[in-house]
């Protein structure tokens, strides 16, 4: 049988020895970087060391290791950064190297868990994981700058190019991952635990069933919840009317879009019998209302309003990610995400979505600067971008930790309604 990376954890002494040697090099460079105050090198070395130790800890064997080729690729950016001429070039090399770490971690997920991903989804996952790693490094570096008064992240433009570099490298790594597997016809991206290790060791069932719906957890009646939904909609209508009377195109477009979103659950419930309870409808409406108010008046006058709306929006994005992966898991035999890994996937999905969103806003800024046109989205400096990413992460953790039970009924209904759709077929 062909020896694909998912079948690579066989504990050969030579492979393990090379991997441990590579880890020793990483720790040495990381320790020197720590003494020299090189934050990005420290973060990269710590991330590589963590990923390298995963199979050792999971399997309880010092000989469990990734293929040495994968380990070598993962540490190459760190070695290259040692010879980079300046801080900016070192940062670019290391952020591009996040893709190699994401690729190694993806291989471990396949080898040590019951995860199954079709190749197109594996490419997407490597890209998302790379963006999430880059966002995490950026948050830690920004925190270091705030606490120590350093300027490692010089400005928003440099930050965005770091995130763009990481995302592009992640996409490239994902495509390479796919092309490599084409060399092994008949081998799918399936779990292949080390011989003698029971797959059931890695599988648990998440307790998300039998929870009361959100409408029952709120401290007021279903009727009152419906009344609040309509009150918030009327608020958005007022913003729309103001925009029309003052010819404010920004207010018109934002209010119209946000108002339309509030009716999506109602349409889905009536047309497809998707069980959106009044609590979920209120939650969605509140989130878009706060965004509408912010775009209309508060965003330009207050730095903290973003810190409220971004974690709330992140909960909606996380919910969409949960519904998507559950639907694919249900209808595609080649795709499976164990329930105990779902919260981690949600966090990665939201972090990556936040990076893609910030890249989009940066693109709008570039277009506005070239054309002089007013764009619907814009960035307002390094602190604005970083607080967006930080609070997106908070929202992702909240929905991954506490919000999934409230989406179970909706998700089950969506998977039932999509039965037989061609896009989900074989």
Summarize the structure.
This protein is mainly α and 426 residues long. Helices cover 72% and strands 0% of the residues.
Explain this structure.
This protein has 426 residues and is mainly α. It has two domains: 5-188, no CATH class; 214-424, no CATH class. It contains 14 helices and no strands. The chain has helices spanning 13-36, 39-59, 68-82, 87-112, 119-148, 156-181, 214-217, 222-246, 249-272, 278-298, 305-331, 342-371, 382-403, 408-417. The radius of gyration is 24 Å and the shape is globular. Pfam families: DUF2238.
Beta-strand share of residues: under 5%
The whole-number mean of residue pLDDT values reads: 81
Number of distinct helices: 14
Largest sheet: none
In N-to-C order, the SSE pattern is HHHHHHHHHHHHHH
Distance between the termini: 26 Å
Helix percent band: over 70%
**Low-confidence segments:** 1-8, 185-208
How many domains make up the 3D coordinates? 2
> What structural class do helix, strand and pairing data support?
mainly alpha
- The count of DSSP E runs of length 2 or more, i.e. the number of strands, is 0
Q: If you compute it from the alpha carbons, what radius of gyration comes out, rounded to the nearest whole angstrom? A: 24 Å
């Amino acid at each position: 049988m062909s020896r694909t990376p998912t079948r690579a954890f066989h504990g050969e002494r030579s492979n393990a020895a090379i991997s441990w040697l590579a880890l020793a090099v990483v720790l040495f460079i990381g320790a020197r970087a720590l003494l020299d105050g090189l934050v990005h090198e420290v973060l990269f070395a710590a991330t590589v060391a963590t990923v390298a130790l995963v199979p050792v800890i999971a399997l309880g064997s010092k000989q469990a290791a990734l293929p040495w080729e994968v380990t070598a690729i993962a540490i190459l950016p760190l070695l290259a950064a040692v010879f980079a001429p300046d801080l900016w070039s070192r940062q670019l090399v290391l952020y591009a190297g996040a893709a190699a770490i994401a690729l190694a971690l993806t291989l471990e997920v396949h080898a040590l868990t019951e995860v199954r991903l079709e190749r197109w989804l594996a490419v997407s996952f490597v890209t998302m994981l790379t963006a999430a790693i880059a966002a995490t490094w950026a948050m830690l570096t920004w925190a270091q700058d705030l606490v120590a008064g350093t300027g490692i992240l010089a400005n928003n433009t440099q930050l965005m190019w770091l995130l763009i570099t990481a995302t592009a490298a992640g996409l490239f790594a994902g495509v390479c991952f796919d092309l490599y597997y084409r060399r092994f016809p008949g081998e799918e991206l399936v779990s292949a635990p080390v011989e003698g290790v029971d797959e059931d060791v890695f599988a648990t069932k998440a307790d998300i069933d039998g929870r009361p719906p959100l409408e029952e957890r709120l401290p007021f009646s279903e009727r009152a919840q419906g009344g609040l939904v309509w009150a918030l909609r009327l608020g958005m209508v007022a913003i729309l009317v103001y925009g029309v009377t003052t010819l404010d195109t920004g207010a018109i477009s934002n209010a119209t879009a946000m108002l339309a979103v509030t009716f999506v659950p109602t349409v889905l419930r009536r047309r497809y019998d998707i069980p959106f309870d009044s609590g979920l409808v209120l939650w969605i409406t509140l989130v878009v209302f706060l965004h509408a108010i912010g775009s209309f008046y508060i965003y330009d006058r207050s730095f903290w309003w973003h810190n409220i709306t971004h974690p709330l929006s992140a909960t909606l994005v996380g919910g969409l990610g949960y519904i998507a992966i559950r639907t694919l898991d249900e209808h595609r035999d080649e795709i499976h995400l164990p329930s105990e890994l779902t919260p981690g996937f949600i966090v990665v999905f939201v972090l990556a979505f936040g990076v893609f969103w910030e890249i989009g806003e940066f693109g709008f800024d570039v277009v506005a600067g070239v054309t002089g046109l007013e764009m619907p989205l814009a960035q307002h400096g390094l602190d604005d971008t970083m607080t967006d990413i930080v609070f997106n992460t908070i929202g992702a953790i909240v929905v991954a930790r506490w919000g999934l039970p409230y989406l179970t009924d909706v998700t089950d209904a969506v998977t039932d309604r999509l039965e037989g759709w061609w896009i989900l077929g074989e």
